[in-house]
Amino acid sequence: MRAWRVDRPGPPEIREFGLRTEGVPHPAPGELLVRVRACGVCRTDLHVVEGDLPVHRPGVVPGHEVVGEVAGTGGGGFAAGDRVGIAWLRGTCGVCRYCRRGAENLCPASTYTGWDADGGYAEFATVPAAFAHRLPAGYSDTELAPLLCAGIIGYRALCLSELPTRLPPSPSTDALRATDRFRGGRLGIYGFGASAHLAAQVAIAQGATVHVMTRDAEARELALELGAASASGAAEPPPEPLDSAILFAPAGELVPPALAALDRGGTLAVAGIHLTDIPSLNYQEHLFFERRLRSVTANTRQDARDFLAFAAEHPLRVVTTPYRLEDAARALADLAGDRVHGAAVLVSG
């Protein structure tokens, strides 16, 4: 099979990242062998290739938004020929205090596709059956790929942003239907790429007013097409105070203006795994009146199930730019240069 490996991460002039031919991997007990049909190109892959993240597996194959067909099964209720998804979260211990309380994304022993184990920039990949995902109908392989990280992480970020609802008070937030969770709030989105354009649609579908701040003019046009109430420059103030905001751009300099745009009691959720340094904050201007700043760390399998169930019931417009598998390096370069419209996806075949 063909597979891309990161033998030496770093900037373009020193990195060793190439396509090679090698044997098909052998699934371990309890794993599935998956023939890759499509793999999304995520900014996290760029961080792995450029060395922003520490090396966990030397020579790793990146890619964690994998859609494929089961070619060999080790159990888990999947059969050969089933369409299956491989996402970022690949394994957890299942016994630590975080796993036991439903926060497996915080498990100290967690492992990740395309970082700790080989991912989907290849013609075949493996995945533990317990961490494989069943996929909703009505989407092509190319459309499904970005849902498996961009979609899931955006959904979790939306949940953690604590966007207010117009629903009557309930004794338990668990009693709220997931499809009504975000109704009524004013949401700001900073950066508008693969994850943001999906999260915006979820929020808009539930009645939220969405304001987008991004430096890319084409992305601003897409935001308005998808129903955003406004779209402006990355650091420009939105037209009204925000109840919640999500920072998708890996730019720490946007944290102060995003916090300043929050109304009293608002929350800013930072969705990326990597962020440049945050400038000094002024307590009175940025944090007073109970404004909150929080990070988003990976996702749980329940997040994935909830989001994919939502996508099955509420068709999302997934904007993609396809690339051939052999053009993975160009796809990453285009992502780094903000030249990708929507989500970049590698297509096998």
UniProtKB/TrEMBL annotation:
Organism field: Amycolatopsis pigmentata
EC number: 1.1.1.1
InterPro entries xref list: ADH-like_C, ADH-like_N, GroES-like_sf, NAD(P)-bd_dom_sf
Pfam families recorded: ADH_N (PF08240), ADH_zinc_N (PF00107)
Domain of life: Bacteria
Alcohol dehydrogenase-like C-terminal domain span: 197-312
Keywords: Metal-binding, Oxidoreductase, Zinc
Family: Belongs to the zinc-containing alcohol dehydrogenase family.
Cofactor: Zn(2+)
Catalysed reaction equations from the record: a secondary alcohol + NAD(+) = a ketone + NADH + H(+); a primary alcohol + NAD(+) = an aldehyde + NADH + H(+)
Listed name of the protein: alcohol dehydrogenase
Enzyme class: oxidoreductase
Domain Alcohol dehydrogenase-like N-terminal: 29-136
Entries under SUPFAM superfamilies matching the protein: GroES-like (SSF50129), NAD(P)-binding Rossmann-fold domains (SSF51735)
